[in-house]
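Quick one:
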Amino acid sequence: MTHHDQIIESARANLDRFHIEELTKAGITPDNVDFVPVVRYPEMTWYPKVDVDEIFSHESERAGIPYAAYVHVPFCASSCHYCHWIKLIDPPQDVVERYIDAVSKEMEIAVKRLSRERLPISTVLFGGGTPTFLTARQWERLLGSFTKYFDLGKCRQFSVEAEPSSLLGQVGHDRLKVLKEFGVDRISLGVQCFDDRLLAIMGRTHTSADVFQAIDNIKKAGFESVSLDLIYGYPDQSIADWINSMQAAIQSGADAWQLYRLRILQHGLTQGVIIKQYKKHPESFPDPSKIRLMKMLGNLISEDNGFAQHFTRIFATDNKHTTHFMWDYCCHLTNVVGLGPSSWSNYHRTFTVNAQGFEDYLRLVDEGKMPVERGLFRDEELEARRSLITPLKNDRVYKKRYEKRLGFGLNERFMPDLERLKSFGLLSEDENSFFLTERGRFFADETVTQLFQKKYLPSPNFPIHDLMPD
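Output:
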Protein backbone atom coordinates (compact mmCIF):
# COMPACT_ATOMS: atom_id res chain seq x y z
CA MET A 1 0.00 0.00 0.00
CA THR A 2 1.41 3.41 -1.01
CA HIS A 3 1.64 6.36 1.36
CA HIS A 4 -1.23 8.04 -0.53
CA ASP A 5 -3.36 4.92 -0.10
CA GLN A 6 -2.67 4.86 3.63
CA ILE A 7 -3.69 8.51 4.05
CA ILE A 8 -6.86 7.98 2.03
CA GLU A 9 -7.77 4.86 4.04
CA SER A 10 -7.31 6.78 7.28
CA ALA A 11 -9.46 9.66 5.98
CA ARG A 12 -12.26 7.30 4.92
CA ALA A 13 -12.21 5.65 8.35
CA ASN A 14 -12.58 9.03 10.02
CA LEU A 15 -15.50 9.93 7.76
CA ASP A 16 -17.21 6.61 8.52
CA ARG A 17 -17.25 7.57 12.21
CA PHE A 18 -19.39 10.63 11.36
CA HIS A 19 -22.27 8.56 9.89
CA ILE A 20 -22.89 11.19 7.23
CA GLU A 21 -26.00 9.48 5.89
CA GLU A 22 -27.80 10.32 9.15
CA LEU A 23 -27.00 14.02 8.76
CA THR A 24 -28.00 14.01 5.09
CA LYS A 25 -31.32 12.36 5.89
CA ALA A 26 -31.95 15.06 8.52
CA GLY A 27 -31.24 17.82 5.99
CA ILE A 28 -28.10 19.00 7.80
CA THR A 29 -25.62 18.13 5.03
CA PRO A 30 -27.26 19.04 1.68
CA ASP A 31 -25.89 16.94 -1.18
CA ASN A 32 -25.97 19.66 -3.81
CA VAL A 33 -24.28 22.82 -5.04
CA ASP A 34 -26.16 25.03 -2.56
CA PHE A 35 -23.35 24.98 0.01
CA VAL A 36 -22.32 28.50 1.03
CA PRO A 37 -19.86 29.03 3.91
CA VAL A 38 -20.99 31.01 6.95
CA VAL A 39 -18.71 34.03 7.19
CA ARG A 40 -21.11 36.43 8.89
CA TYR A 41 -24.79 36.35 9.77
CA PRO A 42 -26.67 37.36 7.79
CA GLU A 43 -24.53 37.45 4.66
CA MET A 44 -24.09 40.78 2.88
CA THR A 45 -26.12 39.56 -0.08
CA TRP A 46 -29.17 40.12 2.15
CA TYR A 47 -28.49 43.79 2.91
CA PRO A 48 -30.91 46.20 1.19
CA LYS A 49 -30.00 49.57 -0.27
CA VAL A 50 -30.10 52.28 2.38
CA ASP A 51 -29.77 55.99 3.00
CA VAL A 52 -26.55 56.51 4.95
CA ASP A 53 -28.03 59.03 7.41
CA GLU A 54 -31.01 56.76 8.07
CA ILE A 55 -28.94 53.65 8.72
CA PHE A 56 -26.65 55.53 11.10
CA SER A 57 -29.57 57.09 12.97
CA HIS A 58 -29.87 53.72 14.75
CA GLU A 59 -26.37 53.94 16.05
CA SER A 60 -24.55 55.05 19.12
CA GLU A 61 -20.99 53.93 19.67
CA ARG A 62 -20.72 51.19 22.27
CA ALA A 63 -18.07 52.14 24.81
CA GLY A 64 -15.34 49.61 25.37
CA ILE A 65 -15.81 47.72 22.09
CA PRO A 66 -12.59 47.97 20.05
CA TYR A 67 -12.39 48.45 16.28
CA ALA A 68 -10.69 46.35 13.65
CA ALA A 69 -9.96 47.80 10.20
CA TYR A 70 -10.43 46.30 6.74
CA VAL A 71 -9.24 48.02 3.56
CA HIS A 72 -10.38 46.65 0.20
CA VAL A 73 -7.90 47.07 -2.66
CA PRO A 74 -10.02 46.31 -5.76
CA PHE A 75 -7.31 45.53 -8.33
CA CYS A 76 -6.01 42.31 -9.87
CA ALA A 77 -3.64 41.45 -12.68
CA SER A 78 -6.08 38.79 -13.92
CA SER A 79 -9.52 37.39 -13.06
CA CYS A 80 -9.72 34.10 -11.15
CA HIS A 81 -12.69 31.99 -12.16
CA TYR A 82 -13.77 31.16 -8.59
CA CYS A 83 -13.69 34.76 -7.30
CA HIS A 84 -16.95 36.39 -6.08
CA TRP A 85 -15.45 39.74 -5.05
CA ILE A 86 -15.39 43.22 -6.58
CA LYS A 87 -12.25 44.04 -8.55
CA LEU A 88 -10.89 45.85 -11.60
CA ILE A 89 -8.59 43.87 -13.88
CA ASP A 90 -5.22 45.44 -14.72
CA PRO A 91 -6.40 49.07 -14.46
CA PRO A 92 -4.22 51.98 -15.67
CA GLN A 93 -2.08 53.67 -13.05
CA ASP A 94 -4.16 56.84 -12.97
CA VAL A 95 -7.16 54.76 -11.79
CA VAL A 96 -5.05 53.29 -8.98
CA GLU A 97 -3.92 56.78 -7.95
CA ARG A 98 -7.54 57.99 -7.88
CA TYR A 99 -8.40 55.06 -5.62
CA ILE A 100 -5.62 55.96 -3.17
CA ASP A 101 -6.81 59.57 -3.08
CA ALA A 102 -10.40 58.46 -2.46
CA VAL A 103 -9.75 55.81 0.18
CA SER A 104 -7.48 58.23 2.03
CA LYS A 105 -10.30 60.76 2.11
CA GLU A 106 -12.74 58.05 3.21
CA MET A 107 -10.45 57.32 6.17
CA GLU A 108 -10.78 60.92 7.30
CA ILE A 109 -14.59 60.89 6.82
CA ALA A 110 -15.02 57.62 8.74
CA VAL A 111 -12.86 58.61 11.69
CA LYS A 112 -14.64 61.96 12.02
CA ARG A 113 -18.00 60.16 11.89
CA LEU A 114 -16.84 58.23 14.96
CA SER A 115 -15.91 61.51 16.65
CA ARG A 116 -12.22 60.71 16.73
CA GLU A 117 -9.14 62.34 15.37
CA ARG A 118 -7.28 59.04 15.26
CA LEU A 119 -9.02 55.71 15.84
CA PRO A 120 -7.27 52.95 17.87
CA ILE A 121 -7.29 49.66 15.97
CA SER A 122 -7.01 46.12 17.36
CA THR A 123 -6.24 44.28 14.09
CA VAL A 124 -5.88 45.21 10.42
CA LEU A 125 -6.47 43.38 7.15
CA PHE A 126 -5.79 44.76 3.67
CA GLY A 127 -7.64 42.46 1.27
CA GLY A 128 -8.90 42.40 -2.26
CA GLY A 129 -8.62 41.99 -5.05
CA THR A 130 -4.87 41.84 -4.86
CA PRO A 131 -3.41 44.46 -2.49
CA THR A 132 0.11 43.75 -3.75
CA PHE A 133 -0.96 44.95 -7.18
CA LEU A 134 0.06 48.36 -5.78
CA THR A 135 3.62 49.52 -6.32
CA ALA A 136 5.95 50.24 -3.41
CA ARG A 137 5.44 53.99 -3.89
CA GLN A 138 1.66 53.57 -3.92
CA TRP A 139 1.89 51.52 -0.71
CA GLU A 140 3.83 54.37 0.89
CA ARG A 141 1.03 56.77 0.00
CA LEU A 142 -1.76 54.47 1.15
CA LEU A 143 -0.14 53.40 4.41
CA GLY A 144 0.95 56.96 5.13
CA SER A 145 -2.71 57.97 5.09
CA PHE A 146 -3.78 54.91 7.03
CA THR A 147 -1.37 55.49 9.90
CA LYS A 148 -2.37 59.15 9.97
CA TYR A 149 -5.98 58.32 10.83
CA PHE A 150 -5.62 54.98 12.64
CA ASP A 151 -3.59 54.38 15.79
CA LEU A 152 -1.72 51.05 15.61
CA GLY A 153 -0.10 51.39 19.03
CA LYS A 154 -2.10 48.45 20.42
CA CYS A 155 -2.64 46.60 17.13
CA ARG A 156 -2.11 42.86 17.68
CA GLN A 157 -1.68 41.91 14.03
CA PHE A 158 -1.41 43.68 10.66
CA SER A 159 -2.15 41.38 7.70
CA VAL A 160 -1.92 41.97 3.95
CA GLU A 161 -3.16 39.60 1.26
CA ALA A 162 -0.75 39.00 -1.61
CA GLU A 163 -0.36 37.19 -4.91
CA PRO A 164 2.91 35.17 -5.07
CA SER A 165 4.36 36.55 -8.31
CA SER A 166 3.91 40.13 -7.04
CA LEU A 167 6.53 39.45 -4.36
CA LEU A 168 9.27 38.28 -6.73
CA GLY A 169 12.38 40.13 -7.94
CA GLN A 170 13.34 43.68 -7.06
CA VAL A 171 9.75 44.92 -7.44
CA GLY A 172 8.58 42.35 -4.92
CA HIS A 173 11.46 43.16 -2.59
CA ASP A 174 10.53 46.85 -2.68
CA ARG A 175 6.90 46.09 -1.85
CA LEU A 176 7.85 43.89 1.09
CA LYS A 177 10.27 46.51 2.40
CA VAL A 178 7.56 49.19 2.54
CA LEU A 179 5.02 46.84 4.14
CA LYS A 180 7.53 45.86 6.81
CA GLU A 181 8.43 49.48 7.53
CA PHE A 182 4.77 50.32 8.19
CA GLY A 183 4.28 47.48 10.67
CA VAL A 184 2.78 44.69 8.56
CA ASP A 185 3.67 41.42 10.28
CA ARG A 186 1.61 38.79 8.44
CA ILE A 187 1.32 38.01 4.72
CA SER A 188 -1.61 35.92 3.46
CA LEU A 189 -0.71 34.36 0.11
CA GLY A 190 -3.43 33.45 -2.38
CA VAL A 191 -1.89 30.15 -3.50
CA GLN A 192 -5.01 27.95 -4.07
CA CYS A 193 -2.98 24.88 -5.05
CA PHE A 194 0.52 23.70 -6.01
CA ASP A 195 -0.49 22.19 -9.35
CA ASP A 196 0.49 24.35 -12.34
CA ARG A 197 -2.14 22.69 -14.55
CA LEU A 198 -4.93 23.54 -12.10
CA LEU A 199 -3.56 27.02 -11.47
CA ALA A 200 -3.92 27.77 -15.19
CA ILE A 201 -7.47 26.38 -15.18
CA MET A 202 -8.32 28.64 -12.21
CA GLY A 203 -7.04 31.72 -14.03
CA ARG A 204 -4.02 32.17 -11.75
CA THR A 205 -0.88 33.74 -13.20
CA HIS A 206 1.69 32.33 -10.76
CA THR A 207 3.30 28.89 -10.65
CA SER A 208 4.02 26.58 -7.73
CA ALA A 209 7.70 27.53 -8.01
CA ASP A 210 6.70 31.19 -7.58
CA VAL A 211 5.02 30.30 -4.28
CA PHE A 212 8.17 28.75 -2.83
CA GLN A 213 10.23 31.75 -3.92
CA ALA A 214 7.68 34.24 -2.57
CA ILE A 215 7.64 32.53 0.84
CA ASP A 216 11.42 32.58 0.93
CA ASN A 217 11.40 36.31 0.10
CA ILE A 218 8.79 37.03 2.80
CA LYS A 219 10.83 35.19 5.42
CA LYS A 220 14.05 36.94 4.42
CA ALA A 221 12.25 40.30 4.66
CA GLY A 222 11.58 39.56 8.34
CA PHE A 223 7.83 38.97 8.46
CA GLU A 224 6.57 36.96 11.44
CA SER A 225 3.90 34.91 9.67
CA VAL A 226 3.09 33.54 6.24
CA SER A 227 -0.34 32.01 5.65
CA LEU A 228 -1.66 30.29 2.51
CA ASP A 229 -5.14 30.01 1.00
CA LEU A 230 -5.81 26.57 -0.50
CA ILE A 231 -8.94 25.43 -2.39
CA TYR A 232 -10.32 21.89 -2.56
CA GLY A 233 -13.27 20.58 -4.58
CA TYR A 234 -12.20 22.32 -7.80
CA PRO A 235 -13.29 20.83 -11.15
CA ASP A 236 -10.83 18.26 -12.55
CA GLN A 237 -8.99 18.22 -9.20
CA SER A 238 -8.22 14.63 -8.23
CA ILE A 239 -7.65 13.25 -4.75
CA ALA A 240 -3.98 12.77 -5.65
CA ASP A 241 -3.78 16.41 -6.81
CA TRP A 242 -5.10 17.59 -3.44
CA ILE A 243 -2.76 15.36 -1.41
CA ASN A 244 0.19 16.62 -3.46
CA SER A 245 -0.81 20.24 -2.84
CA MET A 246 -1.10 19.62 0.89
CA GLN A 247 2.30 17.95 0.99
CA ALA A 248 3.80 20.85 -0.96
CA ALA A 249 2.26 23.26 1.55
CA ILE A 250 3.99 21.33 4.36
CA GLN A 251 7.32 21.72 2.53
CA SER A 252 6.81 25.38 1.63
CA GLY A 253 7.83 26.92 4.95
CA ALA A 254 4.41 28.51 5.53
CA ASP A 255 3.24 28.95 9.13
CA ALA A 256 -0.50 28.50 8.54
CA TRP A 257 -3.19 27.95 5.92
CA GLN A 258 -6.91 28.26 5.36
CA LEU A 259 -8.56 25.34 3.58
CA TYR A 260 -11.47 26.53 1.45
CA ARG A 261 -14.14 24.42 -0.15
CA LEU A 262 -14.81 25.77 -3.66
CA ARG A 263 -17.73 28.21 -3.58
CA ILE A 264 -19.82 27.82 -6.70
CA LEU A 265 -22.74 30.02 -5.72
CA GLN A 266 -22.33 33.72 -5.11
CA HIS A 267 -20.71 34.43 -1.77
CA GLY A 268 -19.62 38.03 -2.18
CA LEU A 269 -21.32 40.85 -4.01
CA THR A 270 -20.86 39.33 -7.47
CA GLN A 271 -21.30 35.85 -8.93
CA GLY A 272 -18.03 34.29 -10.03
CA VAL A 273 -17.75 32.86 -13.54
CA ILE A 274 -17.31 29.41 -11.97
CA ILE A 275 -21.11 29.07 -12.16
CA LYS A 276 -20.91 29.08 -15.98
CA GLN A 277 -18.43 26.23 -15.90
CA TYR A 278 -20.68 24.31 -13.50
CA LYS A 279 -23.73 24.72 -15.74
CA LYS A 280 -21.79 23.71 -18.84
CA HIS A 281 -19.77 20.80 -17.38
CA PRO A 282 -21.23 19.73 -14.02
CA GLU A 283 -19.65 16.31 -14.45
CA SER A 284 -16.17 17.83 -14.03
CA PHE A 285 -16.99 18.93 -10.46
CA PRO A 286 -16.39 16.47 -7.61
CA ASP A 287 -19.48 15.10 -5.85
CA PRO A 288 -20.12 15.81 -2.14
CA SER A 289 -18.54 12.54 -0.98
CA LYS A 290 -15.29 13.35 -2.80
CA ILE A 291 -15.34 16.90 -1.43
CA ARG A 292 -15.73 15.58 2.11
CA LEU A 293 -12.84 13.18 1.55
CA MET A 294 -10.66 16.08 0.37
CA LYS A 295 -11.60 18.07 3.44
CA MET A 296 -10.74 15.21 5.79
CA LEU A 297 -7.45 14.65 3.97
CA GLY A 298 -6.57 18.32 4.38
CA ASN A 299 -7.36 18.13 8.10
CA LEU A 300 -5.39 14.93 8.71
CA ILE A 301 -2.33 15.92 6.68
CA SER A 302 -2.22 19.26 8.48
CA GLU A 303 -2.54 17.80 11.97
CA ASP A 304 -0.11 14.95 11.28
CA ASN A 305 2.53 17.53 10.38
CA GLY A 306 2.13 19.84 13.38
CA PHE A 307 -0.56 22.21 12.01
CA ALA A 308 -3.39 22.22 14.55
CA GLN A 309 -6.86 23.56 13.79
CA HIS A 310 -6.85 26.69 15.95
CA PHE A 311 -9.84 28.28 14.20
CA THR A 312 -12.34 26.40 12.06
CA ARG A 313 -10.70 25.60 8.69
CA ILE A 314 -7.48 27.43 9.69
CA PHE A 315 -4.45 25.32 10.58
CA ALA A 316 -1.26 26.72 12.06
CA THR A 317 1.89 25.75 13.92
CA ASP A 318 0.89 28.29 16.57
CA ASN A 319 -2.22 30.37 17.26
CA LYS A 320 -0.23 33.56 16.63
CA HIS A 321 -0.10 32.68 12.92
CA THR A 322 -3.88 32.55 12.47
CA THR A 323 -5.82 35.59 11.28
CA HIS A 324 -6.51 37.74 14.33
CA PHE A 325 -8.77 39.95 12.22
CA MET A 326 -11.16 37.02 11.82
CA TRP A 327 -10.89 36.25 15.53
CA ASP A 328 -11.95 39.82 16.22
CA TYR A 329 -15.00 40.07 13.99
CA CYS A 330 -16.18 36.42 14.19
CA CYS A 331 -15.50 35.53 17.81
CA HIS A 332 -15.04 38.78 19.74
CA LEU A 333 -17.75 40.48 17.61
CA THR A 334 -15.58 43.55 17.29
CA ASN A 335 -16.65 46.67 15.43
CA VAL A 336 -15.09 46.85 11.98
CA VAL A 337 -14.27 49.96 9.95
CA GLY A 338 -14.36 48.92 6.29
CA LEU A 339 -12.74 51.15 3.66
CA GLY A 340 -12.68 51.03 -0.13
CA PRO A 341 -15.29 50.08 -2.75
CA SER A 342 -17.55 47.15 -1.71
CA SER A 343 -15.95 47.01 1.74
CA TRP A 344 -18.19 46.04 4.66
CA SER A 345 -18.32 47.52 8.16
CA ASN A 346 -19.90 46.72 11.50
CA TYR A 347 -20.89 49.58 13.80
CA HIS A 348 -22.48 48.22 16.98
CA ARG A 349 -25.66 46.60 15.52
CA THR A 350 -25.37 47.98 12.01
CA PHE A 351 -23.77 46.26 9.02
CA THR A 352 -22.94 48.49 6.05
CA VAL A 353 -21.49 47.82 2.60
CA ASN A 354 -19.81 50.48 0.50
CA ALA A 355 -20.76 51.24 -3.08
CA GLN A 356 -19.47 48.46 -5.30
CA GLY A 357 -19.34 50.55 -8.46
CA PHE A 358 -15.92 52.20 -8.65
CA GLU A 359 -17.18 55.53 -10.01
CA ASP A 360 -20.08 55.58 -7.53
CA TYR A 361 -17.61 55.07 -4.71
CA LEU A 362 -15.34 57.88 -5.95
CA ARG A 363 -18.30 60.26 -6.36
CA LEU A 364 -19.68 59.72 -2.87
CA VAL A 365 -16.29 60.18 -1.23
CA ASP A 366 -15.65 63.28 -3.31
CA GLU A 367 -18.95 64.68 -1.98
CA GLY A 368 -17.64 64.17 1.55
CA LYS A 369 -20.05 61.32 2.32
CA MET A 370 -19.52 57.87 3.75
CA PRO A 371 -19.78 55.80 0.55
CA VAL A 372 -22.35 53.38 2.00
CA GLU A 373 -24.75 51.79 -0.49
CA ARG A 374 -26.32 48.90 1.43
CA GLY A 375 -26.89 48.16 5.09
CA LEU A 376 -28.82 46.32 7.75
CA PHE A 377 -29.71 47.21 11.33
CA ARG A 378 -29.82 44.02 13.40
CA ASP A 379 -32.85 43.79 15.65
CA GLU A 380 -32.73 41.72 18.83
CA GLU A 381 -33.44 38.42 17.05
CA LEU A 382 -30.75 38.99 14.44
CA GLU A 383 -28.23 40.12 17.03
CA ALA A 384 -29.03 37.16 19.28
CA ARG A 385 -28.46 34.69 16.45
CA ARG A 386 -25.36 36.40 15.10
CA SER A 387 -23.82 36.45 18.59
CA LEU A 388 -24.34 32.68 18.72
CA ILE A 389 -23.63 31.60 15.14
CA THR A 390 -20.28 33.16 14.25
CA PRO A 391 -18.41 32.46 17.52
CA LEU A 392 -19.82 28.91 17.60
CA LYS A 393 -18.70 28.15 14.06
CA ASN A 394 -15.17 29.39 14.52
CA ASP A 395 -14.32 28.67 18.15
CA ARG A 396 -16.98 28.55 20.89
CA VAL A 397 -19.61 30.79 22.42
CA TYR A 398 -19.08 31.75 26.06
CA LYS A 399 -22.23 31.77 28.19
CA LYS A 400 -21.45 34.71 30.49
CA ARG A 401 -20.08 36.83 27.63
CA TYR A 402 -23.22 36.14 25.60
CA GLU A 403 -25.54 37.02 28.49
CA LYS A 404 -23.62 40.23 29.20
CA ARG A 405 -23.91 41.23 25.56
CA LEU A 406 -27.58 40.35 25.01
CA GLY A 407 -29.14 40.57 28.46
CA PHE A 408 -30.42 36.96 28.41
CA GLY A 409 -28.87 33.50 28.33
CA LEU A 410 -28.45 31.08 25.45
CA ASN A 411 -30.63 28.41 27.04
CA GLU A 412 -33.32 31.00 27.69
CA ARG A 413 -33.60 31.79 23.97
CA PHE A 414 -32.24 28.79 22.05
CA MET A 415 -32.72 25.67 24.19
CA PRO A 416 -34.71 23.67 21.54
CA ASP A 417 -32.18 24.53 18.79
CA LEU A 418 -29.19 23.64 20.95
CA GLU A 419 -30.75 20.38 22.14
CA ARG A 420 -31.47 19.41 18.52
CA LEU A 421 -27.81 19.92 17.58
CA LYS A 422 -26.76 17.93 20.66
CA SER A 423 -29.06 15.09 19.62
CA PHE A 424 -27.06 14.71 16.39
CA GLY A 425 -23.73 14.79 18.23
CA LEU A 426 -22.83 18.14 16.68
CA LEU A 427 -22.78 20.30 19.82
CA SER A 428 -21.54 19.96 23.37
CA GLU A 429 -21.17 22.24 26.38
CA ASP A 430 -19.24 22.67 29.58
CA GLU A 431 -19.73 25.00 32.51
CA ASN A 432 -18.52 28.03 30.58
CA SER A 433 -19.36 27.54 26.91
CA PHE A 434 -21.07 25.78 24.04
CA PHE A 435 -18.79 24.33 21.37
CA LEU A 436 -18.91 22.09 18.31
CA THR A 437 -17.92 18.46 18.70
CA GLU A 438 -15.44 16.84 16.33
CA ARG A 439 -18.39 15.88 14.12
CA GLY A 440 -19.88 19.36 14.40
CA ARG A 441 -16.64 21.12 13.58
CA PHE A 442 -16.14 19.06 10.43
CA PHE A 443 -19.63 20.16 9.37
CA ALA A 444 -19.35 23.61 10.99
CA ASP A 445 -21.01 25.59 8.19
CA GLU A 446 -23.84 23.10 7.84
CA THR A 447 -24.31 22.90 11.62
CA VAL A 448 -24.58 26.61 12.34
CA THR A 449 -26.85 27.10 9.31
CA GLN A 450 -29.40 25.12 11.36
CA LEU A 451 -29.59 28.22 13.60
CA PHE A 452 -30.50 30.59 10.76
CA GLN A 453 -33.86 32.22 10.21
CA LYS A 454 -35.54 30.90 7.06
CA LYS A 455 -35.35 34.24 5.25
CA TYR A 456 -31.55 34.36 5.59
CA LEU A 457 -30.74 30.87 4.33
CA PRO A 458 -27.89 30.72 1.79
CA SER A 459 -30.12 29.41 -1.00
CA PRO A 460 -33.84 28.83 -1.64
CA ASN A 461 -33.22 25.07 -1.90
CA PHE A 462 -31.62 24.69 1.52
CA PRO A 463 -33.49 22.15 3.71
CA ILE A 464 -35.77 23.66 6.35
CA HIS A 465 -36.42 22.00 9.70
CA ASP A 466 -39.37 22.51 12.06
CA LEU A 467 -37.50 24.71 14.58
CA MET A 468 -36.20 27.21 12.03
CA PRO A 469 -38.08 30.55 12.47
CA ASP A 470 -39.11 32.88 9.67
